[in-house]
Amino acid sequence: MIRGIRGATTVTDNDEQEILKASEELIGVLIEKNNISPDNVVSVFISLTPGLDAAFPAKALRMFPNWTYVPVMCMQEIPVKGSLPHCIRIMMHVQTETSQADIQHVYLRGAISLRPDLSIK
């Protein structure tokens, strides 16, 4: 089964190091909470809200051992009026036997407001 594992976080500034640090933190928690092996990852989509363009968050993913060949695409979110600003969202497509209800979606920092019902179990 291929499941989508979601996550999001926020940053305060459009700063390369801040974007990379927040992305690395989010990716690390997603990996840990869902016991993700890069060999089981089909692809990863990472989006940033308008105004965040100082770094590619995929660069943070490449800092993890053995994630070199995982296909990753960065993109910009659509600019919906009133949406959470300075937000980085991740969607990992993972081959797993874990049930949909047991997937651990991760929302950190200001992004907790997006899905408080799916906060870390």
Description:
The chain is α/β, with parallel strands linked by helices and 121 residues long. It has a single domain, classed as 60s Ribosomal Protein L30, Chain: A (2-Layer Sandwich). It has two helices and five strands. The chain has helices spanning 16-34, 58-61, and strands at residues 2-10, 41-48, 72-76, 87-95, 106-107. A five-stranded mixed sheet has the order 3-2-4-1-5, with helices on one face. Helix 2 (58-61) links the parallel strand 2 and strand 3 (72-76). The longest helix has 19 residues, at 16-34. It starts with a strand and ends in a 14-residue tail after the last strand. The mean pLDDT is 95. GO terms for molecular function: chorismate mutase activity. It comes from Bacillus chungangensis. Its EC number is 5.4.99.5. This is chorismate mutase. Keywords: Amino-acid biosynthesis, Aromatic amino acid biosynthesis, Isomerase.
